[in-house]
Write a structure and sequence with these properties.
heterodimer, A: MetI-like fold, two-stranded antiparallel ribbon, 12 helices, B: alpha+beta, Rossmann fold, 2 domains, 22 strands, 23% helix, 35% strand, transmembrane helix (chain A), Sugar_ABC_transporter (chain A)
């Protein structure tokens, strides 16, 4: 069979190409351009080669040390978030009702935090956690626990983590709930006939059937928590000290606060590469799991 | 091993049922004897799955009791009853091997490991699953998976009855027959009560010693395949079983004579108890209606003659009403005019759908 060649087809591709070039390729190339240059203002630039990258990846330099600690902080944050939100989301999904009017009620209540803009979430918790007028901060202090998220790094971390759990656990729960709903009743009935315990039902039916949505939930929550910016920026501004300065906050400070365009450009490229690498690993794992599944099912 | 008694059982899915229409399952009294092979036959939505789920304990009946032997199990949970169930779509535990799947019910009941292993081997042998014991269960074809589901029921030595909920729905046609004979063999080998739900009359009639026909949430007839064929207790049974189904013709009955339009048919029994208000119908299976060349018998118009392999079935019209009749071997019909001969022993009269017994012809009537 011969394919029809028609050059007019390019006209259909052209708009997409233009939009992508305008919104992604050109800005990215500008960043690449900045990352190899230095400037002392006046819009005058000097060639710096891979200098910024060398400095960034050398932990003994000031920039490198700052980058490494932000990176580790961000990774730690993502790890904690996943460890809390995934099991908690599963637990919530399991305890949600299966039928009746309470289903709709639960779904709406669960979706509420997801609908609140991120800077509003930050503001809510900023006020909520204050020791003088915030209900949470005031109550905790009254209970005799010394809590001050603006002064104590641990308190700041706890507040940000609790805030993120409050904001995003629903997403994991809703995804898991969708996974659970897709399990036919016959599986539960068969398990009852087989005398399976609650735990056995979870291990042998629910968890395996939820695996796909769980992978998606983990991926989404990882990406979101790894790029978290707005909420900690509003809540703590990265403080106290640098205790909650995640990569994104660090980057914005560098680029827009200090106007260190070269350093910031290099940093954002490396940041980008890290995200790409991690996503690639996730993607490979997921497709491999699916491929294996299909091979097994064939 | 047990006899299962359904005592005045009824079920409604909505709360506070009032009229008969509210009941998905209308009142039923039935005894399933130990070791029997039963089929529960009826169209989709007739309540047969509800009945099955009540027996297995997945659904609690609105009214009535379920007895295993003499013990009331109505309120016992599924896992406490000695019941196994095979579902319409194969249920296997995907992450486990076939061996682990088969061992699962025993593991949950804390049966010692060596006894479990022996029993699994035994059942796998019976179901011809020995070759695949160490493969992942998700890796197998639908018929294999159904065998695994069945095997999970059979491994329990105390199992009293196995319930099948249309188990062959997703099986390839050429494997259906095989799997059904496997079921028959197992039934003979293990002396277990089996209740098989289906909407397929061939499956029901070949599998079961006794068939329970359900329609609209009620049992309309219970009997051997022969009884269902020879003496359908309800026009639904006559129509649903047999292919083609029974001819059901609206008629008027006076004593021992039925009038279909202008055609008069004399009956073996007389029906003087029929009141005026009922819907009266005459039923006769095509097998007992013979088509003959025009002559003695009831005059009919032949529309078409179908060769269905084992017999020839004529589609005819009698006084404007369509009818199916069998064409005996060696008879050929010229033109569209022919005659019908009805076997009077197989003519049944139905009032409002139910078979009317009638009285032996005495001094009354024709």
């Amino acid at each position: 069979m011969t394919k029809t060649l028609n050059n007019r087809a390019w006209f259909f591709v052209l708009p997409v190409f233009l939009i992508v070039a305008f919104s992604a390729i050109l800005p990215l190339m500008t960043v690449v351009n900045y990352s190899v240059q230095d400037t002392f203002g006046n819009n005058q630039f000097f060639w710096n080669g891979i200098g910024w990258f060398q400095e960034l990846l050398d932990p003994s330099s000031q920039l490198g040390e700052q980058f490494l600690s932000s990176l580790l902080r961000t990774l730690l944050f993502s790890a904690i978030i996943l460890l809390i939100e995934v099991p908690l989301g599963i637990a919530v999904a399991l305890s949600m009702p299966r039928e009746g009017w309470t289903v709709a009620l639960c779904l709406v209540l669960m979706a509420l935090p997801l609908l609140i803009p991120w800077n509003v979430v930050g503001t809510i918790w900023q006020v909520f956690g204050r020791g003088d007028i915030g209900l949470l901060g005031w109550t905790v202090n009254r209970l005799g626990i010394d809590y001050n998220y603006t002064g104590d790094p641990i308190d700041a971390w706890v507040t940000i983590i609790v805030m993120d759990v409050w904001h995003w656990t629903s997403l994991v729960a809703l995804l898991c709930y969708a996974g659970l709903k897709s399990i036919p009743d016959a599986y539960y009935q068969a398990a009852r006939i087989d005398g399976a315990s609650r735990w056995a039902v979870f291990r042998t039916i629910q968890l395996p059937k939820m695996r796909r949505v769980l992978l998606i939930a983990v991926l989404l929550r990882f990406m979101d928590s790894f790029m978290i910016y707005t909420e900690p920026f509003v809540l703590t501004g990265g403080g106290p000290g640098n205790a909650t300065t995640f990569l994104s906050i660090d980057l914005v400070k560098l680029a827009l606060g200090q106007f260190d365009l070269g350093k910031a450009a290099a940093m954002s490229l490396v940041y980008n590469l890290i995200i790409l690498a991690i996503c690639w690993v996730f993607y490979t794992v997921m497709t491999n799991v699916d491929a294996e599944r299909e091979r097994v099912e064939a | 091993m047990a006899r299962i008694t359904l005592d005045h059982l009824a079920h409604a899915y909505r709360a506070n049922p009032r009229t008969a229409e509210d009941y998905a399952l209308k009142e039923i009294k039935h005894v399933w004897s130990q070791g029997g092979a039963y089929a529960l036959l009826g169209p989709s939505g007739c309540g047969k799955t509800t009945l099955l789920n009540i027996i297995s304990g997945l659904v609690r009946p609105t009214r009535g009791r379920v007895l295993f032997d003499e013990i009331d199990v109505t309120d016992l949970p599924t896992e406490a009853r000695n019941i196994a169930q095979v579902f319409q779509f194969p249920v296997v535990y995907d992450t486990m091997t076939v061996r682990e799947n088969l061992a699962f019910p025993l593991k949950n009941r804390n049966v010692p490991r060596d006894r479990t292993a022996r029993r699994v081997e035994e059942i796998a042998g019976l179901l011809d699953l020995t070759r695949v014991l160490d493969r992942k269960a998700s890796n197998l074809t639908a018929d294999m998976k159904q065998k695994i589901s069945l095997g999970r029921g059979l491994v329990r030595p105390d199992v009293a009855a196995i319930l099948f909920d249309e188990p062959l729905t997703v099986i390839d046609p050429h494997l259906k027959w095989q799997l059904r004979s496997t079921l028959k063999e197992i039934h003979r080998a293990l002396d277990i009560t089996m209740i098989y739900v289906t909407h397929d009359q061939t499956e029901a009639l070949t599998f079961a010693d006794k068939v329970v026909v359900m329609h609209d949430g009620a049992v309309v007839q219970t009997g051997t395949p022969d009884e269902l064929f020879e003496r359908p207790a309800h026009t639904f049974v006559g129509h649903f079983i047999g292919s083609p189904g029974m001819n059901i013709l609206p008629c008027r009955v006076e004593g021992a004579i039925a009038f279909i339009g202008n055609t008069m048919i004399s009956l073996r029994r007389s029906y003087r108890t029929l009141s005026g208000g009922e819907r009266i119908e005459l039923g006769i299976r095509p097998e007992f209606v013979r088509l003959q060349p025009k002559g003695a018998g009831l005059p009919v118009q032949v529309r078409r003659i179908d060769d269905i392999g084992r017999a020839r079935i004529a589609r005819v019209e009698m006084s404007g009403r369509p009818l199916a009749a069998s064409v005996p071997d060696g008879i050929s019909i010229e033109g569209s005019e022919a005659s019908l001969v009805l076997d009077p022993n197989h003519v049944h009269i139905y009032a409002n759908g139910h078979l009317v017994a009638g009285e032996a012809n005495g001094g009354h009537g024709a």
